[in-house]
Amino acid sequence: MLSVPSHTMGRTSGKATLLMDGTLNLPHPLVLTAQAADTEVFHYTGVMQQPDRNKFTLTMIREIEDLTKAEVWELEWHSDIGNTKVIKAIWSFKHKRLPDGTYLKHKARLCAHGGMQIEGEHYWDTYSPVVQWMTVRFLLIVASILNLHTRSIDFTLTYTQAPIDINIYLGLPAGFTVEGNHNNYVLKLKKNLYGLKQAGLSWFEMLCNHLISSGFKQSNSDPCFFHRGGLILVCYVDDCLIFSKSLADVDRLIADL
Description:
By secondary structure, the chain is of the alpha+beta class. It has helices at residues 9-17, 44-47, 53-69, 133-146, 199-213, 247-256, and strands at 41-42, 73-77, 86-87, 89-97, 103-112, 149-154, 169-170, 185-189, 217-218, 225-228, 231-236, 239-244. Helices cover 27% and strands 23% of the residues. Strands 6-12-11-10-9 form a five-stranded antiparallel beta sheet, sandwiched between helices. Strands 2-8-7-3 form a four-stranded mixed beta sheet, with no helix packed on it. It has a three-stranded antiparallel beta sheet with strand order 1-4-5. The model is unreliable at 1-14 (pLDDT under 50).
């Protein structure tokens, strides 16, 4: 075992943990619980071999019900689409845990196999901007100085809210069938689904268009920074920070979104 000589222990330790601003860079106690809080990820075959597969089955049913209610797809005959390529539907399962390792919930997410998409046929542009960290830090400093109200919001089933601009067909997800021969049916996507290469861009364009139509102006230096009067909104995929001196304005914006 390698060790530091005792006569240099204090000096070496101090230099190793002291940052430029005088604060200490020490491991957080929760680091010790990282292994216990590990979130295992399974696909359909693997999750069906787990002792708690019944709980995952319930989350699968809930996911399909939510997507159906949101009108993400519509059922079509396979014979009606000719030789059009069908994208595979993939399940992703995860144990969500608290930092101490105890279960928080079982999560099931239905995704599209984006690797089966063909550039120029199923998608073109894929780049979606995210807010610059310099912008976030600057706004938090300004909010602290000016005593601005600050709210953080997160959108639910984000990508599935954005409409899709091209015909994409999905195979039926594992574990679910349609009455009759399920091989005769496919799902025509009406909205984006997680896993599609253009899903992030479609969502950002939808959010951006809504904010601009609501009177917001987009920054030239940071495309994820929007402002309207005394309201400021910055977005990072499906997370947003809102700043304003008026809490009522913040609440109205959240209700509108």
